[in-house]
Amino acid sequence: MSMTPPTPIRRHRLLEAIWGTQPGLGRLAAVNHNIVGKRFMMTAFVFFAIGGILAMLIRAQLARPGHVFMPPEQYNQVFTMHGTVMMFLFAIPMFEGLALYLLPKMLGARDLAFPRLSAFGYWCYLLGGSFIIGAMLAGVAPDGGWFMYTPLSSSTYSPGINADVWLLGITFVEISAISAAVEFTATILKLRGAGMALRRMPIIAWYFLVTAVMMLVGFPPLILGSILLEIERTFGLPFFDPARGGDPLLWQHLFWLFGHPEVYIIFLPAAGVISTVLPVFARHRLVGYNAIVLALIAMGFLSFGLWVHHMFAVGIPHMAVGFFSAASMAVAIPTAVQIFAWLATLLKGRPRLDLPMLYLLGFFFIFVNGGLTGVMVAVVPFDWQVHDSYFVVAHLHYVLVGGFVFPLMAGAYYWMPLVTGRMPIYHLGRAAFWLIFVGFNLTFLLMHLTGLLGMPRRVYTYPAGIGWDWLNLLSSVGGFLTAIGFALFAVDMLMQRRFGQHAPRNPWGAESLEWSLPLPPPSYNAASLGPVESRDPLADRPDLGREQAAGQHYLATPRHGWMETLGVEAVSGRPDQLILLPQPSLVPLWTSLATALCFLAVLLKQYWLVGVGVPLVLGCALAWLWSMGLREDPAPVPIGHGESALPHPGVASQPGWWGMALLLLADAALYASLLFGALFLWVVAPGWPPPALLGFSPSLILLALAGLLGAPLAGALGLAALRRGRVGACALLSLLGAGAGLLAAAAVAALPLWHGAPPASHAYAATALVLALYVALHAALGTIMALYTAARCQAGYVSAMRDLAPRNTLMWQGYTALCGLAALLLLQLWPWMAGAGTTP
Amino acid sequence: MTLLRRLPGVAVATLAFLLWSSAFLLLYVAVSLGCAWGWDQPAALGLSLQRWVLLGVWAVHLALLGTLLAWSWRGTRWGSAEDAFRPVLATGGLGLALAATLWCGLPVLLASACQ
Amino acid sequence: MAALWWVMFFMATAILLGVCAVALYTLRRERRGRGLHVGRFVAGWGVAFPVTALAVLLVIALRTGEGMLPKPGPEGALRVAARGQQWWWSFTQWDAAGNPVHSAGELHIPAGRAVDVHITAADVIHSFWVPRLTGKLDAIPGHENVLRLRADTPGIYEGQCAEFCGLQHAQMDFRVIAHPPEAYAAALAALATARPDPAHPGAADFAANCASCHGTDARAKSAAPNLAGLAQRGRIGGGTLRNEGQESVLLWLRRHETLKPGSREPSHAALDDATLARIAGYLETAR
Predict the structure, then answer these.
(1) Distance separating alpha carbons of residues A54 and A665, to the nearest angstrom
(2) What are phi and psi of A773, to 5 degrees?
């Protein structure tokens, strides 16, 4: 580097000026992972407290038989909200916050791949969550159970807006989950320290990676289900109505296709915390790193083969049920591998019973208990007995509290010195542990028995004298003890922040990168980014923290006000680009507000407002994208250690490309769920074949094919022209692609609109319409992207080297063409084979 | 085969479990379609057409995974810690996926198809 | 089933205590175990042991499950029907001549014989569960599920809806009454004739106010619970009240809106107390 390196203090000031967030209203523009991560975690904790209060209301109601504490309509809202809040507003966002906060620090980066996306995700989460809680305070909370089974949640049996609040609010919150999943996957694959090969990543990054990919595939089925149910409720399209060719079981499949992977999406990050924290207190490196990574991949897949075990009692053939029963047992093996790897780590080391370790011991008892009852409910005939009884309530709380809350509390005590720079105060933490541990087991151990004695779930009252009275009373007492314990925990956290002793650097003697940072870490994490030579970087370089502060490593000298971090080759971890991150911005907030407007408009049935909201969202998104990129080709710049790298706009495998690819993976999961739904209704639902099939229309098919295939063809030719340096030709071809997209959208949408039966008449017509609209929507969005690409070409943001816009647009157009072909096959080949003639 | 050796371990493990997913999905589809289309009547050698299809789907996936495992096994040099990462994920992943496919298909032998 | 449960229970307890004991043991200062071969430890306890245990469990589970399926057998199962609706169960039994006998809240079966319950739903999803007889099976609109059960000894078996079905899911109980096999035909015949006395002064009030929904003839279906044999039922209102005679029925007629809020039964505010008492008295003769 040409200029003289600054002193550590001056470097800190320079970096802070670049990375820091403005005070006052500037806080609304914050995109830094330190801030957004903490916001996520604190908001999630508030929702946890709300969910806990709801749990106390449930226990108050059930303490005595025939107790009149709440009327049934209120009780049903309370238990529905307890499940909904804990699953969607606490567990998943808490993981998101933890990963947001920790990932860059542990990977040796300065921030995540898409900081503005983190901020957007946070605002969506906050707005969607507030929306649901607001509805509860207004007395119109969802009351159909957190699983929202149809037809109970259909407009016939739930006419109010309660169910719409759930469907729209949760879908809004899911946007943040999908954003986070895209963000984490791209970050873990690309934004790491120099030399951090996949095989050297901190183990928790593997857990987060598997979890994030599972979210990309696991959440879309629920999003699809929610959209279909909302369409059914609003416009009467009968996807779940058996009288018109729909099937209530389709909802259950879509819900649990999400719902079971969800359990592992919650457990895996917490298990990652254990694999990180336990070795530190065992004073021995984690045993079986490789085996654990393999176990994680196995769990990631197997957990998608379990969903029907929530549906053993719906009357599915025994063999099909058997596959899911077998898979449910198989998933115990990778779990057991982890448990015994942790035990082996403890056996090889010299464990010390610090506060985090105490919570980990609590985890062992509670989670293993829940895992074992999990194997029991995987046994089909046993499940037929205990399904939907309090036995299952006990099981799921053992798994979720044991598998998520306890490890996270261990993690909270472990990482609090990092967040606050202060050490825990021990006495309160121990008291909280024992209250929670004893209270929890009193509440839920007994519930196994209550369930075996035949008490069903979700009842607002029960008769006296059948042996459930004293069990429920003790469960309620235990519940209140647990609540007091959690309150103590919260007090302890506040006390530590206020009164704890200042923590020395790396207070636990850990060997992972986050402990190389000053406590609490500055906005830019490390002043220079240290190299990674093994799985335990602080063991190789105990003095890494000082070296980083002294600027001895990568990216030590701030320049041009750039927010710089390293991008690496995914597998080897060799630096392959210099990633320039975007500045703080209000655009994420505006985008989420515009999105909220759309959701509110649908909820309040003011559809004209959607016409305002959608252009606003699109406008915000385009403004967001437009503000990034370079107007001239970058040249390689020095990055330290005598190496140089190209800024990311000039690199093929830049994060933006990964972002689009991962988004399409989630999109494909949604489309696959839709195809599954169509096939499922056709095979299983009553009332098929439909009275009338879609008319066969050769002219529309030809137009649709021309548009669908023309768009990516134009995109590919444009990219080829760009490679030869002809930016203008690329812009023109993009415009051509935009026209082709429009043609495809119109032709595909026209198919069911002109040649189909009224969509409310039968699930076939409804499914055909939704399939066509899915493709048409994608073609139309492709048009907008192609127009954007043309404009970017004109404005000088695109060159043979800076080709992200045309490449991503082409990826989208290609995906749309594939989806369109599949839809045309299903919609037109099938009626044609059925000999339905040309027009109805 | 050389491609298999060149892929990163995590890609091989993913491929292996994608094959498991394919087996699982096709078995489930074959049960559902078979029952819907009445393939559950005895057809040949005392077994129904449906059960033959199920056995076929299962066997093809086992054979595929078995072959890949054998290929991967021959080229595997185990090491320790970081060096063992690729072989554990690649060869171990194929072995685990094979075992999982075998395990999850057991109901084909033990359960009624349409009841 | 019970044996399966106890085996699983003791195995699970042993594993749980074992894991916790090892975890606690590691905290001891003086211990051996440094020589532990971790590969063998994890492969043995984390893989080999659970695979073996689960393989045994899977085979037992599938075989037990097979044994519970409603397969055609040599003796032939008796067919009955159960229909769940918000928030009560209607049942249909068939007598030897094949004529239906409808009832509400009480299902009559012979003891000692396999019975196939054909389960359907009228509105939302419910679940048919008699914990002491067998596992549960859902009642799903658009589908018919068949549950095989058998009561070995005559008696009364309590049942309830096990799938959340809305406001009054909690008060959707029913009973399965298992009669001695030789007495089953007589029990059905008695139910078929257990109509209220048409000469009772309440008959006209009932006809004017209740009969548009409630039937009193077990031979005919009715939209609301069939009241034939009401006087002999153990409970009314889907388990809301114990049936202790005319007084209980009257209490229900007066206060059902607070006893079971949301129930589809319309308000009786327009009827005076004397009318309600006459109706209760009339129904008391349905035996």
Answers:
(1) 36
(2) -65, -35
Residue C86 CA to residue C263 CA, distance in Å, equals: 8
pLDDT at position B75, please? 77
Q: Does C62 touch chain B (CB under 8 A)?
A: yes
What per-residue confidence (pLDDT) applies to A837? 39
Domain A689-833: which topology? Four Helix Bundle (Hemerythrin (Met), subunit A) (1.20.120)
End-to-end CA distance of chain B: 43
By percentage, how much of chain C surpasses pLDDT 70? 98
Q: In chain A, what residues touch B9 (CB-CB under 8 Å)?
A: 199
What's the sign of the alpha-carbon dihedral A534, A535, A537, A541?
negative
**Residues A719, A711 contacting (CB under 8 angstroms):** no
Distances in whole angstroms, Cα of residue A806 to Cα of each of A286, A614, A712, C9: 45, 24, 10, 61
- On chain A, the residues whose CB falls within 8 A of the CB of B115 are 317-318
Do strands C115-121 and C78-85 pair parallel, antiparallel, or not at all (unpaired)?
parallel
Concatenating the DSSP letter of every residue in A250-284 gives HHHHHHHHHHHHHHHHHHHHHHHHHHHHHHHHHTS
**What is d(CA A341, CA A336) in angstroms, rounded to the nearest whole number?**
8
User: Does the pLDDT of residue C32 top 70, yes or no?
Assistant: no
d(CA A46, CA A90): 8
Question: Which residue's entry shows tokens 């779940």?
Answer: A240
Q: CA A416, A422, A425 angle in degrees (round to 5)?
A: 85
So where are chain B's domains? Answer: 22-110
Task: Return the number of other C-beta atoms located less than 10 Å from residue C186's C-beta.
Answer: 11
Q: How far apart are CA C95 and CA C189, in angstroms?
A: 8
- Reference A372, options C19, C89, C284; nearest CA is C19
Q: How confident is the model at residue C219 (pLDDT cuts 50, 70, 90)?
A: very high
Closest residue in C to A321 (Cα) is: C62
pLDDT of residue B1: 67
Mean pLDDT of C120-138: 95
Distance from CA of A622 to the nearest CA of C (A): 45
| Closest to A77 measured CA to CA, from A131, A125, A146 | A146
pLDDT of the residue at A839: 38
C66 touches chain B (CB under 8 A): yes
> Chain A contact for B94, CB < 8 A?
no
The CA-atom distances, in angstroms, between C1 and each of C132, C149, C150 are: 11, 13, 14
Q: Residue ranges of chain A with pLDDT lower than 70?
A: 1-4, 832-840
Who contacts C148 (Cβ-Cβ below 8 Å, separation ≥6)? C68, C69, C70, C77, C114, C115, C116, C117, C134
Q: Is the ipTM of this complex over 0.85?
A: yes
Is B107 in CB contact (< 8 Å) with chain C? Answer: yes
Tell me, what's the pLDDT at C33?
61
Q: How many C-beta atoms lie closer than 10 Å to residue C218's C-beta?
A: 28
Domains of chain A, residue spans: 689-833
Phi, psi of A283 (to 5 degrees): 50, 45
How far is residue C73's CA from residue A106's CA, in Å, rounded to a whole number?
64
pLDDT at B79: 79
State the pLDDT at residue A2: 46
Q: In the structure, how many helices (H) and strands (E) does chain B have?
A: 5, 2
Q: Which of A314, A333, A346 sits opposite C50 (nearest CB)?
A: A333
User: Chain B interface, mutation test: which of A285, A297, A303, most B Cβ atoms within 10 Å?
Assistant: A297
C43 contact B CB<8A? no
In chain A, the residue whose alpha carbon lies closest to the alpha carbon of C26 is A347
Q: C70-122: per-residue pLDDT in tens? A: 988 777 899 999 999 999 999 999 999 999 999 999 999 999 999 999 999 99
Mean pLDDT of C281-285: 93
Beta carbons of A347 and C41 less than 8 Å apart: yes
